[in-house]
Amino acid sequence: MNRTAFLLVLPLLSACDVHSKHLADGDENVTIQADESGRVAFNLPFAEGQVKVPAGMMHSGDIDIDGVKLMPGSSMTGFNVNAGDELTTVHLNFMSPARPDEVRAYFADQFGKKGREVALAGDAVTGKTRDGSAFVIRVAPAANGSQGTIEIQDKD
Q: Which of 22, 45, 83, 97 would disulfide-bridge 30, Cβ 3.0–4.6 Å?
């Protein structure tokens, strides 16, 4: 998962406001954050900085967990990746025009079709990816449907 975090930000390094870091500092943690307006901040072992990507990149982000995508009509509104000390946590925010119970049922159905065992509990869908990484998808009401978060934790 650390490689994934690294590859997400590589194309952005040629953009503005990038500063090199001293590799001897011993900090091998990776942090990447993005919001729905397209502001991306990153802190890598060798560089840190901020870039602005088109906001449309965030909304049309192609989320895929073991072949399960966001519910049709949904859009990603932000993400955060923290990798270090043998644990990577990916936190994604999304909006959907559907009601929360429909979104949870969609995820449960789609993961079931992929052979993944999931559980519905309150506002959440929980399970494990095919490589054993735990995930939690929380969905709550929003003004025009629902808003949710997807959190995946991977132990390296």
A: 83
At 9 the pLDDT is: 43
pTM of the model: 0.73
Contacts 24+ apart (CB under 8 A), 38-42: 40/9, 40/12, 42/9, 42/12
CA 102/CA 125 separation, integer angstroms: 12
* Distance, CA of 122 to CA of 132 (rounded, Å): 23
* Neighbour order of strands in the sheet with 30-35: 18-20, 47-52, 39-43, 30-35, 75-84, 87-96, 145-155, 134-142, 124-128, 118-121
Q: Pull the structure tokens for residue 137.
A: 């998808």
Element (H, E) at 56: helix 55-59
Domain limits, the chain? 2-17+28-155
